[in-house]
Automatic annotation (TrEMBL), chain B:
<feature type="binding site">
    <location>
        <begin position="57"/>
        <end position="61"/>
    </location>
    <ligand>
        <name>a 1,2-diacyl-sn-glycero-3-phospho-(1D-myo-inositol-3,4,5-trisphosphate)</name>
    </ligand>
</feature>
<feature type="binding site">
    <location>
        <begin position="11"/>
        <end position="12"/>
    </location>
    <ligand>
        <name>a 1,2-diacyl-sn-glycero-3-phospho-(1D-myo-inositol-3,4,5-trisphosphate)</name>
    </ligand>
</feature>
<dbReference type="InterPro" id="IPR050840">
    <property type="entry name" value="Adaptor_Complx_Large_Subunit"/>
</dbReference>
<dbReference type="InterPro" id="IPR003164">
    <property type="entry name" value="Clathrin_a-adaptin_app_sub_C"/>
</dbReference>
<dbReference type="InterPro" id="IPR016024">
    <property type="entry name" value="ARM-type_fold"/>
</dbReference>
<keyword id="KW-0653">Protein transport</keyword>
<dbReference type="GO" id="GO:0006886">
    <property type="term" value="P:intracellular protein transport"/>
</dbReference>
<keyword id="KW-0813">Transport</keyword>
<dbReference type="InterPro" id="IPR013041">
    <property type="entry name" value="Clathrin_app_Ig-like_sf"/>
</dbReference>
<comment type="function">
    <text>Adaptins are components of the adaptor complexes which link clathrin to receptors in coated vesicles. Clathrin-associated protein complexes are believed to interact with the cytoplasmic tails of membrane proteins, leading to their selection and concentration.</text>
</comment>
<keyword id="KW-0254">Endocytosis</keyword>
<keyword id="KW-0168">Coated pit</keyword>
<dbReference type="GO" id="GO:0072583">
    <property type="term" value="P:clathrin-dependent endocytosis"/>
</dbReference>
<dbReference type="InterPro" id="IPR008152">
    <property type="entry name" value="Clathrin_a/b/g-adaptin_app_Ig"/>
</dbReference>
<dbReference type="GO" id="GO:0035615">
    <property type="term" value="F:clathrin adaptor activity"/>
</dbReference>
<dbReference type="Pfam" id="PF02883">
    <property type="entry name" value="Alpha_adaptinC2"/>
</dbReference>
<feature type="binding site">
    <location>
        <position position="53"/>
    </location>
    <ligand>
        <name>a 1,2-diacyl-sn-glycero-3-phospho-(1D-myo-inositol-3,4,5-trisphosphate)</name>
    </ligand>
</feature>
Amino acid sequence: MIKAIVVFNNHGKPRLIKFFQHYNEDMQQQIVRETFHLVSKRDENVCNFLEGGRWASGKNSDPENLIGGSDYKIIYRHYATLYFVFCVDSSESELGILDLIQVFVETLDKAFENVCELDLIFHVDKVHYILQELVMGGMVLETNMTEIVTRIEEQSKLEKSEAGLAGAPARVVSAAKNLDLPKLPSNIQLPNLPSFR
Amino acid sequence: MPTVAKGDAMRGLAVFISDIRNCKSKEAEQKRINKELANIRSKFKGDKTLDGYSKKKYVCKLLFIFLLGHDIDFGHMEAVNLLSSNKYTEKQIGYLFISVLVNTESELIRLIIQAIKNDLFTRNPVHICLALQCIANIGSKEMAEALAPEIPKLIVSGETLDAVKQSACLCLLRLFRTSPETVPSGEWTQRVGHLLNDQHLGVVTSATSLIHTLAQKTPEDFRQCVQLAISRLSRIVTSSYTDLQDYTYYFVPAPWLSVKLLRLLQVYPPPEDPAMRGRLNECLETILNKAQEPPKSKKVQHSNAKNAVLFEAINLIIHHDTEPTLLVRACNQLGQFLQHRETNLRYLALESMCLLASSEFSHEAVKKHMDTVITALKTERDVSVRQRAVDLLYGMCDKSNAEEIVAEMLSYLETADYSIREEMVLKVAILAEKYPVDYTWYVDTILNLIRIAGDYVSDEVWYRVIQIVINRDDVQGYAAKVVFEALQAPACHENMVKVGGYILGEFGNLIAGDQRSSPMVQFQLLHSKYHLCSAPTRGLLLSTYIKFINLFPEIKGQLQDVLRNNNNLQNADAELQQRAIEYLQLSTVASQDVLATVLEEMPPFPERESSILAKLKKKKPNVSDIEVKEGKKSSNPPTLNNSAANTPEATPASAPVPVMAAAPAPAPVQSASDDLLGLSAGPAAAVPVTNNFAAPAAPAGGGGLLVDVFDTPPAQNNVSTALAPQAEDNFFKFAIKNNGVLFENELLQIGVKAEYKGNLGRLGLFYGNKTSYPFQFFTPTVSCPGELASALNVQTKPLDVNTVEGGAQVQQIINVECIADFLDAPILSIKFSYSGSMQQINLMLPVMLNKFFEPVEMDATTFFNRWKQLNSPGQEEQKIFKATYPINQDNSRTKLLGFGFGLLDGVDPNPDNFVGAGIIKAQSSQVGCLLRLEPNMQAQMYRLTLRTSSNSVTTRLADLLLKLF
């Protein structure tokens, strides 16, 4: 089972946090920090796995307090500026999860057209929806990229059709605000009118 | 065309995010966030109803703020309201907010569950999917209780869309994990199994995950799935990659599904049906063959997917552990991976090979790769991989390669990562103990371990080397020599001082002949470390010194000076002070003879599971797998333990005497004495000394209850049916005596006189009325509850009178005959009417098995011969228990004699121990019993060993004896 999915950038700024087991906010942030700490110092060509028991067995931290102890593995991949980190238990195939990360990224790439960190920042909701098509309650839901993309497209269509109806007023307002009206000449020379009599 | 048109984004959100990103400082960011939170709060609180677009925008902002690590304490209600919107987008964002931000204890959970319910019952599949996703993501107990019954319907219904089915499977799986009891199996379980045949591979994948988890709980319910899974797997692996179209991932057909199916099959043993088995083996072979084919793509994704399936297939082969050819092929394949350029594959190969090493069929094949693994240990750049290499070396180690592996691990230890040192130390220590080349090698190895990684050598490790040195005469001189040498290093680890101090204190005399290690030199060497050590170690050294006073009287003066030193005599540490004072006094007061007895060499330690192994298991629970399999092998190599372990059972006389020399032997550190030196506190002492009679007594009382239902007049009121309060205490006293008072209260006294011969006995009961008023309707009855009726024949002579006058005594005779061995005692229940109210007293009649016991005399040889004959399981019962009464030689003797044993003096070399023999005479059989009782004064414990020819007699006598000491 996948316990958590975390995406953060090279500086450790979280871009996506998804836990399939409840932790409070502080704990979630702490896990992100510690995971970043562990993952970021690793070389590029080492293996993509880290063991729970090991990475938390430093003298000062209790192995139990980070996502459940030695049965857990961290499986991660590094793409350009982002780390994609999955924390899984022993019932998952390591290479399978590695492939799943790849599917996730490829799907994001299709959805956003050359996905980059900014897309994840500005479209958190979309990223969540895409992830929901892949993983549900910690289990792999769908791995067929075509199928996933189709489902996302259906969602977008629905969104658009709804936006077309109900979103209209809001759009009109915002459109009006941003309307770049051609500037009126500032000093209009009024023609001299014949004086009234 | 991109699916998400970027222009659609919400402008306000984008502006906010840009603002945050432009913040120059943490404070500025915090300020901007606070401003935004205030803004959203006022919007939510405002009277104006927000339109869907704005709600969505604000929720997105909150999500972003949450991601930055800020607490969001509002907006939950708005999100819940969004759930009941008819618009997909609003519903969707509502669900998103809830699954990210709402915790399972939220008070809103009821509202959420209601909203989910509404969505589940719509006919709109998109809404159903959203609801299912939310359940699966939160998966709380309340949700499970409220919603679990609905989900199976969705899975098995013919009308459900594939996408919904897929989600429903995983949703149910999640709820099952949260609280299995809410997902009862039913008619649907059968039908879930058939989803393995579904057209849609996405559905099959989800269903396999669900079945895998359910089958782990109740394998029987899903046994039919084995066949379905095999045929599905076979169809996938034999298909060409174009067949499965979209489920082909980089030219590998449905890798995830294959992995899941292989995992599911690992829940079950290999199929028994030969056809099915053949088909499965074909699949596995195909997967192994494919690994040898040239890759269809250079991309890493292709090889990843292919190998994911391959590794899972190998795991299944290892799990089945029945096909030697497949196992060896798997091993060869992993061997190739060991040298692969992909680090991931090397890591996984080491991991899987570790499992293979524990299989009988492939252990040898794994060993061939030892050199590669050692190279990996030395050259891998990644600590994760090196760790795996250590694990594998440990797993593949046996007698043939132990020396090399231990040497390699020791040399790696010098540079090993700090994070894995402790575990490595334990592993080295275990291997050295398990596969010793010889004992000098063992001692060398452990001392090296302390030298190289002293900080990581836990107490268990150095305790163990001492245990082994003490138990093996042939290594003691050598051990003394090497610790002496090791201590000469200018800086040596405190653990080395501990081991050195202990060993020299015991065996320093063995090397004292050499001028270079004369007593004085030994002492000065140890004492030069004294001031650098912690208090517990100093305590240990003080014990060494007192032992030296015994071993080397010639340097007594110098040793006493140290003890007399004010630093010790007035030490702030109470333990050190006490030791110094006591040892000094002992050395002054006691004669050389007394000293020699008190400070005798430590007796051998009883053999038991290595405490190091226990520690490693605690640290890494999965290690035990290796050990278990190890134990299964018939070719289990002899370990250090075995040599001595066999003796105690075979000949009690030569068994290690478990009583400590009654002296402050070097058992200084309290924690040390708990584990290692306090023999009595060994694992066996963990056997709780339970009140074995408590259990039988309860049904006996119940039997009494039945009796009075039939016998007593209905008018009774304050009649107690339980046993009288003091009944039990008094009862056990009768185990070793025949006459006495069985019961007494303010009304009644009951005395007993009994005599036994062979399997017959006769009891006289004397009922005395202590009051001045008569007892009316006085009726004592004896009953034998349960099995006892057939084991014991009891004849009661009814009383001549049914009234006992005030101050008078009446007598009743009871005859008993022992038919077979028994545990419970007959119940004596007495009813009478005293001044108008009914009284009832229930007692246990003091007839126990040992009453039919006759002592036997025999000489030592006969005893040992018989002892050895009684060696099958069940015939022996050993109990180690805490003394209830103070240990006293004479009392113990009286008790055993009273119990019926013939005591055999001079059989046990230790005069404190008791050895006895007797025969139980029942009508049906006669059972010979042998006993050995070893008191340990210091720990106030006993070890009781009983051997008899009948299993039940053994336990029953042991239970009785436990009560007496």
